[in-house]
Amino acid sequence: MMEFLYFPENKMEYIPAVITLAIFMILAYFTFRYFRNHASKEEAKMEAFEQDVLRKLENKELKNERRI
Asked: What does the pLDDT look like over 12-28, one tens digit per residue?
């Protein structure tokens, strides 16, 4: 009936599949952590840049108020 499904009689044939699955799961975990750490570092850089720009804008506005 369902000839496309293959379940081996010898369960030792599952070992390579489990090892491959474990390797890819570990690689996926480390890839996820890499992107998460990189994103948090980029976010910190962007916040620092934003604070710097806001500080410069405030200084520029204060200078313009003094001229008037």
From this structure: 999 999 999 999 999 99
Structure token digits, residue 64:
């313009």
Q: Which residues touch 8 (CB under 8 Å, ≥6 apart)?
A: 14
Torsion, Cα 41 46 47 48, to 10 degrees, reads: 90
The pair of three-digit structure tokens given for residue 46, joined into one six-digit string: 């962007």
Kindly list the distances between the CA atom of residue 65 and the CA atoms of 15, 52, 58, 60, 62, in Å, as whole numbers in the listed order: 75, 20, 11, 9, 5
Which has the closest alpha carbon to 30: 40, 42, 38, 18? 38
What would the pLDDT profile of 24-53 be if each residue is shown by its tens digit? 999 999 999 999 999 999 999 999 999 999
